[in-house]
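Archive entry: two folds, one per protein. Generate the first.
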Amino acid sequence: MHARSPPPPVVLGTSVVAVAAAAPPIAAMGTRSVALVLLAAVLLQALLPASAAEGLVRIALKKRPIDENSRVAARLSGEEGARRLGLRGANSLGGGGGEGDIVALKNYMNAQYFGEIGVGTPPQKFTVIFDTGSSNLWVPSAKCYFSIACFFHSRYKSGQSSTYQKNGKPAAIQYGTGSIAGFFSEDSVTVGDLVVKDQEFIEATKEPGLTFMVAKFDGILGLGFQEISVGDAVPVWYKMVEQGLVSDPVFSFWFNRHSDEGEGGEIVFGGMDPSHYKGNHTYVPVSQKGYWQFEMGDVLIGGKTTGFCASGCSAIADSGTSLLAGPTAIITEINEKIGATGVVSQECKTVVSQYGQQILDLLLAETQPSKICSQVGLCTFDGKHGVSAGIKSVVDDEAGESNGLQSGPMCNACEMAVVWMQNQLAQNKTQDLILNYINQLCDKLPSPMGESSVDCGSLASMPEISFTIGGKKFALKPEEYILKVGEGAAAQCISGFTAMDIPPPRGPLWILGDVFMGAYHTVFDYGKMRVGFAKSA
């Protein structure tokens, strides 16, 4: 095992026997010396944390609720990512041989679980997402001068570390949330009580866009396989194993879904904590290295088969994805069964309920249609058409007042409503019929990021959604797959299912993110190349 310094050395997970063995031979010592050594060993065992005595290293996770700024950032970054991928293909890392396709789709803006690491000697602290769906470690660099986002986060200062080693190789990673670019460096990385030496990581000098600016994390620590590591950098987890810092090549995630308890959860390196789960784990082999990918069976809605994965599907366990993502065809069916409506549909209905009559009155008064949405305050007028004014508007369910969400799509919804109403007026329909018809059209609108809202009061009537893994059904209850945003009368509920179509040969693919991993304790067994799931405690 690897010893920690400064002296006296304390070896992680060392037993009393091992400590005594390090002492001089008993024959060469007096009775008093032997007694002192044994007493010291007993005291050391008593003083060591339980996790150290078990050979486990625990990283406390903090849970932060999804807020409206994060949702807007997630949607904007996701739309940008979709446009970029549409132009450049799924694998936007370039030369990645198809392995980087999912990394390029990742959207961290709704992430809730974070932990702390240190980089350098003495350790410089950073808040990171521990992400099993990517493999690089990156943090903002003090040499990041021209990206505003860097100034909102902790930045690594190589000149303040005595263990820094220059590398300089350029690096870039494309995520769904945006790209980061910089260069590789090497330094010690502190994870819990462990110090990983000579770790290659990326100093990010460019974080374009505003999305990283509002992010609650400084960087990403990837726990995937080296096969998808940009620059073929050796992942932190590999180094932990190589340097003998963990007793067992296994790590596990426990997410505490009871946010009112204050504790976000734990990552345990070197094994698992029996208090984090109930019963036994069901293990499935890793089917393709890169991501923690495995084969999955049928998906059931309310106990009834959908038939979609009856002949098998692939899935990955991804701690860096907040929702549960799957092929559009089945996600649409799930969301229909749980009564989910698209966020755009909700915004469209908000426009109709708040401004529908006013829009109709302006059309009847023969106001120029292209100016109507600016007149009602949802857009600004640039001389030709309405432009989003970033109107803050989401209806409070009880009071009918704005709760302050900046929502650009409100302008788009207004523009569509104007066109629809024009067509209906041309057909001499009554005002009531027109408003009802527009509401029906709102229901048909797709969501830009697949994010869908549900009625918070309808959870009791929603079905269980089950996934077949290793021949066993893993069910998610409504309270496990519905995310609540906000509090009180202004609270909104979001479906934990989102559509994401991964093309062949990697896809079709399910991404079991925090929604699933919160309900099921997840074990990543690097030694036996398998993933295990058991009900979270």
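Generate the second and append.
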Amino acid sequence: MALTLRSTTSFLSPVDPTSKLLHKPGVDDALPCCAAVPAAPHAAAPGRRLRLVRAAAPAPAAGRAPAEAAELLHAGGAVHEHGRARGGVPVYVMLPLDTVGPGGQLSRQRAVAASLMALRGAGVEGVMVDVWWGVVEREGPGRYDWEAYAELVRMVERAGLRLQAVMSFHQCGGNVGDTCNIPLPPWVLEEMSSNPDIVYTDRSGRRNPEYISLGCDTLPVLKGRTPIQVYTDYMRSFRERFRDYLGNVIAEIQVGMGPCGELRYPSYPEANGTWRFPGIGEFQCYDKYMRASLEAAAVAAGHEEWGRGGPHDAGEYKQMPEETGFFRHDGTWSTEYGQFFLEWYSGMLLEHGDRVLAAAEAVFGGTGATLSAKVAGIHWHYGTRSHAAELTAGYYNTRHRDGYAPIARMLAKRGAVLNFTCMEMKDEQQPQHASCSPEQLVRQVKAAASAAGVELAGENALERYDEAAFSQVVSTARGAGLAAFTYLRMNKTLFDGDNWREFVSFVRAMADGGTRPALPRCDTGHSDLYVGFLDAAKERKAPEAEGAATATAAAW
């Protein structure tokens, strides 16, 4: 016998208005009125697109049958509040690195389209894509080709999903997980050839072409423009091309600020076997622009001799902390000189991040799109006093100093979300000799974000499909109060049998947040609520999602 409850009391909970990751209702979302919503008329022309509000019913996406736009609120499940299910965390999925290839072509369109629909059926909020500088501006300075990305945005919209767009000012290739090679624009590579000092350089003179050195941020080294001007022009062109989608389909702009799109120095490059885990990495401060800055800082500190180069005893990429004079237990890092150098080195990175984010804020402010920045989860040697691997990457974080608080404050200044990696990792799974502690690191970053008033979002650092990894993310998300989580990555393997089932369960767990679905805010009385209806609705969708995954895997 079905149990029915008749309510005369509101079950409302206060709505959290603080999240920056605003939610665009889709046809499967719970609508904020207890009535069936008729199909909306055809959408207005793109130039007259209206901002969606919670009190309005969503127009059906292109290609969707009008009948699907009419639905009863109670069938929707948990109420969404600014991008997350009540008590839960919205999940995004990273698209393949070569979704838009080096020649500006949209790759595997049939597989991508099928995958987007399968993800939607699983309850995923949206997807993330790298918007490669090396692809878009490949034909020459100021010549932008957005066509493949425009088609992708339309595909995402048709699937009823949202998009996180990464302004990828770095090259693809040479790091963990890089499966393709997308260099910086050819005209930038020409500038590198004529002036090698515009890229990061280590103590032995090895140049790294992944990203332009922050030492020349404000110098006209790119055919008369500064790197900051080039990044600004690129973002401005993106804004103009996708103006009608920003703040609705394009929910977030993640601003790349270093290798792998992360705010850091390229201190641990895997290309050509330069670095190997768990090596300490090397300082990247030997191009002429960084050296000039160091010299000036040393003179200002009254120690001209400190500006003659980076630490001479910092070792090499693959070494361990205790094998070096700088990073060992009571090494040079803890001396007056060490403190001076590390403050300068990390300070330069912070200033770079602030400059790039200031440009992004000026471009995207008022569009409704959230800004975010990615910080690397460098968890090896976290258990040592010096935290060597973090120091070479530019994070001045040691046993006695919080290196993430200044980063969080800088992001707060620009209204950006802090996106952090290694959310899937557990301390007990790491090799003991590497002194890893990803869990403690995440807790520290969470505390820094909370103190600065910055929202925290997360990613997994490595591809994982097992229940243990998903459970760790769910646990971390609940403890850290994540604004969103982006899963790495969409590929054929994700849609294979057990992997897909684990993933769908994970998405549901993130949406539920460990609590029962909330009742609609307008349910103020006399509602007939069938206990278990929402769970039953989820079960009905499970076979559909699994069938879509099977078809999707075949499309790859």
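Annotation attached to the second fold: Residues 1-86, 514-538 have pLDDT under 50 and may be disordered. Residues 30 and 79 are 6 Å apart (CA to CA).
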